[in-house]
Design goal:
The chain has 263 residues and is mostly helical. The chain has helices at residues 2-21, 47-61, 70-82, 86-90, 123-137, 151-155, 172-186, 193-205, 213-219, 228-233, 239-257, and strands at residues 97-98, 103-106, 117-120. It contains eleven helices and three strands; from the N terminus they run H-H-H-H-E-E-E-H-H-H-H-H-H-H. It has a three-stranded antiparallel sheet with strand order 1-2-3. Strand 1 and strand 2 form a beta hairpin. Helix 3 (70-82) packs parallel to helix 8 (193-205). The termini are far apart.
Length: 263
């Protein structure tokens, strides 16, 4: 498709630019305008779509609903509750979790912009992760976050969503395809895991949560706002603001799922 063609052209262009620098060739045959003009997606799920999707994912993640495996349902719920990319969620390793600070630390090599990312875990996100770990360790699901972690869960080292062959994490495309099939059954049209990220960011900025744009930008691990000099010297990671924003967003998800009127 057009997107793949553009990526292939960009890849070839970089190869030939390298060859020119090394004086292996004198021209770059891929140095021409982008083949296809790409339009950014603008899909944002409505509250009714979020309500339907979350309810059905919650059923599937506990094995009570058909149409999707439990790990995939949990992964999609984490995409919505943390606002992180499907690839980052699919590749989550227990070494990235810090239960002392209730945080998820995504290493730079796993981030799109190659910048390490700190994601405070809301109560919902913690319970979802524990739900996945309880499946992997065959232990009862932990409901009280104040309780000590079961020994089997504390000792587990590995991917939260391992691939079927046990070699590495699950492919993010598994999540994307599963959501496509699941949403088709639910009557939710043209929705992808990345749209969950856009939906959460949009609703977080609305009157429901009233989160500042710079905090949302940092939650999404986008380039910080402001001039380059400010970005260099401002090393504050906004952890308290990000945690408050994600807790507010998680509670909003529950209110939407429960069809609770706005205050």
């Amino acid at each position: 498709g057009p997107r793949t063609a553009n990526f292939a052209q960009a890849f070839l262009r970089r190869i030939y630019n390298f060859a020119i620098r090394e004086e292996w060739t004198e021209r770059n045959p891929a140095q021409f305008p982008m083949l296809y003009k790409m339009r950014p997606r603008e899909r944002v799920l409505s509250e009714s779509e979020v309500r339907l999707l979350w309810r059905q994912l919650d059923l599937a993640s506990t094995g009570a609903g058909p149409g999707m495996s439990e790990p995939t349902a949990i992964a999609l719920q984490l995409c919505l509750s943390t606002l992180q990319r499907a690839g980052e969620v699919s590749g989550l390793h227990t070494d990235e979790l810090d239960w002392t600070t209730r945080s998820w630390l995504i290493p730079a090599q796993r981030c799109k912009n190659r910048r390490a990312h700190h994601v405070p875990l809301s109560q919902i996100s913690q319970l979802l992760i524990l739900r996945a770990l309880s499946r992997l360790t065959a232990t009862p699901a932990l409901q009280d976050l104040a309780a000590p972690l079961p020994a089997a869960i504390a000792a587990y080292r590995g991917y939260l969503f391992p691939a079927a062959d046990g070699l590495g994490p699950s492919d993010r495309r598994v999540v994307s395809r599963a959501m496509n099939r699941f949403c088709a059954k639910l009557g939710i049209n043209d929705a992808t895991p990345h749209d969950l990220r856009r939906t959460g960011a949009s609703m977080m900025a609305s009157e429901r949560c009233n989160v500042r744009g710079d905090v949302i930008s940092r939650l999404l691990n986008h380039t910080p706002l402001g001039p380059p000099v400010t970005q260099i010297y401002n090393r504050y990671d906004y952890a308290p603001e990000k945690r408050a924003a994600l807790e507010a967003w998680s509670q909003t998800i529950l209110m939407i799922a429960a069809d609770t009127p706005r205050m």
